[in-house]
Amino acid sequence: METPARNLIGKGTVIKGDVESSGDIRVDGRLIGSLKSNGKIVVGQTGVVEGDLTCKQADISGVVKGILKCEELTALKSTSKVEIDLITKQLLIEVGAVFTGKCQMSQPTIQQPSK
Fold it and tell me: 15-32 pLDDT, tens per residue?
């Protein structure tokens, strides 16, 4: 069985457009567009995402603006600054995190990225 890829959008990189991944993905650069993953999305401290996120798990330490749909756990770390409409099953917010928006705690229906 093939192992899903681990992807990185590095610091200093800017991507304009939509990104889909069957594996985990980490954003330390800037993404202007949507991001869909069958795995975990990590937005590092230097990461900025302006667009919608769809994933199994989310670990946010940077900046996110858009809609976040997460099947399992969304973790907003102390350095995160988010302006989102959030749909997630579980939510963890560390002291220091800035969360502006709405939160709906439920199991979202996630459409899998096309192959």
Answer: 999 999 989 999 999 999
Q: Does pTM top 0.90 for this prediction?
A: no
Nearest CA to 96 out of 82, 77, 83 is that of 77
Give the total residue count for the chain: 115
Phi-psi domain of 93 (left: phi exceeds 0; alpha: psi -120 through 50; beta: other): beta
Which residues does residue 55 pair with via DSSP β-bridges, in sequence order? Answer: 70
- Contact in structure between 67 and 85 (CB atoms under 8 Å): yes
Output the CA–CA distances (angstroms, integers) from residue 96 to 22, 61, 78, 104, in the order listed: 31, 11, 4, 21
